[in-house]
Design a protein that fits this description.
By secondary structure, the protein is mainly alpha-helical. The protein has 4 helices and 2 strands.
């Protein structure tokens, strides 16, 4: 009878198998695993992951992106001896953020 493993141990073995250059069968032979058990556990654990329907997400960076429309005239903004030429139609929220950053 083979060694009983936890699902975490099986997940580690499956990950090692996928990152190795060996076929699943060769990996099983090298690690003294029953191929039938390995395939069954891999299928069972993959099914559990897929059935949850959720993936872990992480916010890396909050960014704001604005696209100015093609402008026929520019606005000129003078703040602390800095003159900026801004396309007409630039969103007010962006202007407020810009002015706050320059203040």
């Amino acid at each position: 009878m083979g060694k009983r493993r936890t699902n975490q141990e099986w997940q580690t073995l499956i990950a090692q198998s996928e990152s190795s250059s060996l076929s699943a069968l060769a990996f099983c032979k090298r690690n003294e695993l029953n191929p039938s058990t390995f395939y069954a556990k891999r299928q069972q654990l993959n099914k559990n992951e897929v059935s949850l329907g959720f993936v872990q997400a992480e916010v890396v960076e909050k960014t704001m992106k604005y696209q100015a429309q093609i402008a026929t005239a520019n606005m000129t903004l003078l703040i602390n001896d800095v003159e900026l030429s801004i396309p007409q139609g630039t969103p007010a929220a962006y202007l407020a953020e810009l002015i706050g950053a320059l203040s």
